[in-house]
Fold:
Amino acid sequence: MINFLECAAPGVRGLQPYQPGKPIDELERELGIRNALKLASNENPLGASPRAIEAGKGAMEGIWLYPDGNGYNLKKKISDKFGVGIDTITLGNGSSDILAFTVQTFVMPGDEVLFSEHAFAVYPILTLAASATPVVTKAKAWGHDLEAMAGAITDKTRVIFIANPNNPTGTWLPQSELEAFLAAVPERVMVVVDEAYFEYGQSLSNDYPDALQWIGRFPNLIVSRTFSKCYGLAGLRVGYGVSHPQVADLMNRVRPPFNVNNIALVAAEAALDDEAHLNKTLEVNAEGLKQLATGFDTLGLSYIPSIGNFISVDVGREAGPVYEALLREAVIVRPVAGYGMPRHLRITVGTTEQNEKVLAALKKVLDL
Ligand SMILES: *Cc1c(COP(=O)(O)O)cnc(C)c1O
Structure:
């Protein structure tokens, strides 16, 4: 038989698949238990908005029809809510789609894509899949070193990815720093500001910037957001990008037809309307972050201050075996050795009870 590895695009040959958080079902099957706790994928511990669930159920009747390929109603809602033109919006099957469309639109084999150490794992995957070259700058206090990033731009740089706040570190860039960076990047280089945790960031920091304010000013800026995190719709797969209309038009050319399904479209609309659910989510998260930080302090563990709905804690030793031991306690968290953080575990903020459970399990397995 022929070796298909040799037929694959050069970048794909060296690729490792994305490692998602372990599914609850899988752990329950393996341990023969029920009620495992998953705090591994930054999902909303309160679930989806009841209004989104209701809207999604209503859309079931219409699933024999193709969705509105243009997603007009959802785009209109996003446009009204955030004050951006409809022609600046690209809808995605999760915001992962927006990141992928950016690379497909602007990056050719041999080009460079720039991001930071400890950045989101999808950036190197997309880069290699395009047979492009990842350029990775050193982090500064776990966060993005924008000076280093600006210095790493070359003639071959096509795209820069910046997650604000960053996952898995939870670190963030303040308004003035990010603005100065955007002003310094040449216009031919696309900058993706990945705001998957935007609403959390806004609720937790006063100088956390809303990158949509710069859409009119920096034509090379693409802002990506998602319904997977604070809106609790991770399983439906829906997100969006906002950019200069010409960039949105180009991304729309590579977008697969009907990439966002009927149910996701209406559920996302309803989720945007349910401010009470969002506010409750942000409140539970702020309390939970404090609870986890206080718990880590009590256990003598250091952690990286976060404005997301997750926090990375230094377990003081190789984290892999600690992750495995937590699984045996029916608690799923996220090992981040693949992100260059072999002693950290990333823990999604849960409800008060869930946070208590993960702290107790950590105390037990670390024998503290
Ligand atoms: C979760 C996440 C995303 C996107 O997830 P989707 O479910 O595809 O919208 C994007 N960027 C970062 C940094 C994330 O953590």
